[in-house]
């Protein structure tokens, strides 16, 4: 919490950053509109340091989405719209972190929420980086359920490259949180990093399991291509093949983020 003049200054900074991200086509218009209040909630109820962690996530995730974008686009695997994220993606990735910042404030800075915040962003970065790097993997992904080879870009697939990327992502967030959010307490520094890696890695793989099971999958009635969205393909509406119709990739992300946050929060037992 800080005085109103500071709040206005930070809000201006956030709007400027978001406009820049929009111009760089990192987020689309509605994504930008969702990102500003979310960033502000994290800054206001968490702290400026919490906001820095969010910024590290945002910049790294954006760089990896843009990385070899042309190649991913050619393969038909890219996030649409030049990789610009929409509001659903912004909320699925940043929403849990914003909610945890509010809980942190309401609980008078209970460290359990610092750990859950770490876990939710660790998952968000692990998952984004694993997906974006995994798409470029030279070997075909295997299904997390039965280990059979599946097509690149299909939900529920894992690759070694993707797992290494996920580990790098959770390590990065873990280190950032240990340095910025530990309040200089040595025992906290030692716990935050393993909490981030464990929460981030388990949640990333849970995300793949949910993606392979409950997430809605559609097929084109003409070319039999498997799609993640109810859409028009080959000029006809796709039909749902499996999964729950209300559960799309963003819902799966949100569920996995909550799981990641809970796993990291459980490290509170060894915090003291
Ligand atoms: Zn088709």
| Ligands bound, unique | zinc ion
Q: What characterizes the major β-sheet?
A: 3 strands, antiparallel
- Main sheet: strand order: 4-3-7
What is the H-and-E element order?
HHHHHHEEHHEEEEEH
Determine the N-to-C terminus distance: 26 Å
Structural class: mainly alpha
Proportion in helices:
55-70%
Question: Can you tell me about this structure?
Answer:
The protein is mainly alpha-helical. The two termini are 26 Å apart. The chain contains nine helices and seven strands; from the N terminus they run ααααααββααβββββα. The strands form three sheets. It has a three-stranded antiparallel β-sheet with strand order 4-3-7, with no helix packed on it. Strands 1-2 form a two-stranded antiparallel sheet. α5 packs antiparallel against α6 (111-134). It is globular and about 60 Å long. It has helices at residues 4-23, 29-46, 48-66, 69-74, 87-106, 111-134, 160-181, 186-213, 249-265; strands at residues 142-143, 157-158, 217-219, 226-227, 232-233, 236-237, 239-242. The chain has one domain. β3 and β4 form a beta hairpin. The mean pLDDT is 89. Bound molecules: zinc ion. Residues 220, 222-223, 225, 233-234 line the site of zinc ion.
What's this entry about, in short?
The chain has 272 residues and is mainly alpha-helical. It contains 9 helices and 7 strands. The protein has helices at residues 4-23, 29-46, 48-66, 69-74, 87-106, 111-134, 160-181, 186-213, 249-265; strands at residues 142-143, 157-158, 217-219, 226-227, 232-233, 236-237, 239-242.
């Amino acid at each position: 919490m800080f005085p109103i003049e500071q709040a206005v200054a930070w809000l201006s900074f956030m709007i400027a950053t978001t406009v820049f991200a929009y111009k760089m086509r990192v987020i689309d218009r509605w994504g930008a509109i969702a990102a500003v209040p979310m960033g502000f909630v994290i800054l206001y109820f968490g702290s400026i340091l919490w906001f820095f962690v969010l910024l590290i996530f945002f910049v790294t995730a954006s760089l990896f989405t843009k990385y070899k974008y042309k190649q991913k686009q050619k393969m038909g695997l890219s996030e649409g719209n030049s990789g610009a994220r929409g509001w659903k993606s912004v909320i699925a990735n940043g929403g849990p972190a914003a909610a945890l910042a509010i809980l942190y404030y309401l609980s008078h800075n209970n460290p359990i929420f610092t750990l859950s915040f770490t876990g939710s962003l660790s998952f968000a970065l692990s998952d984004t980086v694993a997906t974006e790097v995994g798409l470029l993997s030279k070997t075909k992904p295997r299904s997390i359920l039965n280990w059979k080879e599946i097509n690149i870009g299909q939900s529920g697939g894992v690759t070694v490259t993707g797992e290494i990327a996920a580990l790098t992502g959770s390590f990065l967030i873990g280190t950032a949180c240990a340095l910025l959010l530990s309040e200089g307490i040595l025992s906290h520094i030692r716990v935050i990093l393993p909490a981030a890696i464990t929460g981030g890695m388990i949640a990333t793989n849970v995300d793949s399991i949910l993606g392979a099971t409950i997430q809605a999958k559609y097929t084109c009635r003409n070319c039999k291509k498997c799609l993640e969205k109810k859409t028009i393909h080959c000029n006809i509406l796709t039909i749902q093949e499996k999964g729950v119709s209300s559960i799309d990739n963003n819902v799966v992300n949100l569920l996995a983020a909550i799981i990641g946050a809970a796993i990291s929060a459980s490290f509170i037992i060894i915090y003291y």
